[in-house]
Amino acid sequence: MNEENLSFLQEQVMYAGFGDTLDNDLKEKIAQQPETFALEYQTEYGKDKVEAELHFSQSNKEEYKDMYFFNSYKVKLEREGQPDMEQQFYINKGGSITLKEAYNLMCGRSVNKNLWNKTGELYNTWLQMDFKQTNDKGNYGLKYFNENYGYDLDAALQKYPLKELENDTYKANLVESLKKGNPASATLVKEGMEDQKVYVVANPKFKSVTLYDSNMQRLGRRRREKLDASKKQNQKQNQAVEGDESSSSAKKKPWKRARAV
Fold first, then answer.
1. Where is this region: Disordered (predicted)?
2. Is residue 204 within 8 Å of residue 218, measured between CB atoms?
């Protein structure tokens, strides 16, 4: 057995977000020297169940038959109230999507990654799954929002009075979590009211961030509804006041200026 290759694969699996729980299974499979094999992995994120199948293959070159490659993994996601879905993720040089990032993408959130282009240059981009398109293998496509697209996460965050933005360390943690596609916990400061715990989600497509309450209900919609209701109430009150003033002024006798003698 190629111990160096085994160690490299174990590191790849760990950094892909699967930890070291598959180390022994990986070693046993390689010892059997099959052309291809798969390993199973299960985890949960909250109430969501995730099953992954990791795919490995033997080198097709005779002189490197003792070497194996970690090619891809397929994720099956089960969410309460949602249809099950599957997606294949490929292992790439320096820019592979981790299991948690894969989960976030499958939930519709965006992930920020440094990737290599075809000419070998490193570039930064936001990724989001396109649920309207699938390829010949049944995989959903990915939308890319590169640096030229103009999404400024920091500027989007500054539009909200978040307490974490007042501390450089807390802000850095918030930004890092958002780049991984997580709904990041934050504190919304309200004038004259108790601070509110919220979740923030990056939204590169619309160059913004979206805020949710503790039940993951979008805040913007509720806030607009409250503002609309408040606006209508104010309009009614103003109309009532104007009506009273008109009625009152109609009853008053016209004022005449005294003529100087």
1. 217-261
2. no
